[in-house]
Amino acid sequence: MIYHPDIETMPRADLAQLQVERLQTTLNRVCRNVAFYRDLYDREQVDLESIRSLEDLRRLPLTTKEDLRRSYPYGLFAVPLRDIVRLHASSGTTGQPIVVGYTRNDLDHWSQIVARTLCAAGVTEHDIVQIAFQYSLFTGGLGFHYGAERIGASVIPASSHTNAAEQVMIMRDYKTSTLITMPSHALTLAAARDQLSLPSDALALKTGIFGAEPWTEEMRRQIEERLQITAYDAYGLTEIIGPGIAGECRQRAGLHVNEDHFIAEVIDPRTLEPLPPGETGELVFTTLTKEGFPLIRYRTGDRASLDPTPCVCGRTLARMSRVAGRTDDLIMIRGVKVFPAQLQALAQTLGGMAPMLCVVLTRVEGEDALEIQAAFADDFGGLDEVRH
Ligand code: DLL
After folding, report:
1. Which of 38, 72, 205, 220 has its CA 20 to 30 A from that of 357?
2. CA of 323 to the centre of ligand 1 (A)
3. Model pTM greater than 0.90?
């Protein structure tokens, strides 16, 4: 099933035309309302009138996480705060979070594109959808929540605060048919179900939609086998909107990017030159409809490739590959995203500790674990504080 057939199966030439029109509107808006972009384009002598095609977009400078961090908290907002109705945030490289704002229209678009992702995975109004993502500044919980309500499913906002055993009991008693969470959490829930010794037909689960961290085909196989479901990949990042940027259809041969709302590019992270379809590089997104927090050519730090050829499902929206890694040292562990530099900054506030830390990523009883090794001065008395 296709949620917006007119858009999702649009001929690519028409889609390109729509993208260019929306790009021009967005560029005008950021130049008018965001000092950062106005100054940047002045400095780089960019003539916006000359941006008439998608190829021209490649002449515009890139936006980085560092630019966003420097604009903390509201520096890149393109509307006054009275028009912002929701705020979310994600981790920045040095402990400074990145705050994003949504207008009412942004929230409306967001729920529509998440609805597309759910619909592509076969979720309908007949489904009982358990959302086990955090409901917080993190976009996973609320993002999927409104998308699932939009298609009329019965939504259980279980959130990640519910412990694994309880989560499984909810799944059993409420007859959950769709589970939405992180892939690693899905495996934790499978282990909890085993511990409760529930018979294999005790759950009504059919479908899982997973994302917010990297996973592999092998992990998909394990999740599907242990939970007896079909598992789909969903991709997104807070800076651009949250979940809903791209998701798999029933073919599970790449994640359809919602290109009427975002332009996706892949660049070589060293030369910053665009790469052709099929080649893996850094994903870069430009928002086309965002009012609150528009971004032009934002470097995601995620490595993937793009395939613009039509899909067997009928969608013409390009497909991105699974995320094949990061271009930076972001660590994702049990739903927490952390840069080693953040740990180091924290260590520096404690005193008595050598400035260099060793961060060891391991697995303990099947779960990811992060061990921090640090060196202390002989006379250091604050170990308890450090442990805390
Ligand atoms: O993780 C948004 C999201 C929520 C996506 C729920 C999907 C489902 P952030 O916390 O800002 O936002 O983290 C974004 O997570 O740049 C990727 O590195 C990683 N990531 C997100 N989805 C996937 C995925 C949300 N399907 C960062 N596969 C991104 C691999 C993913 N990595």
Report:
1. 72
2. 9
3. yes
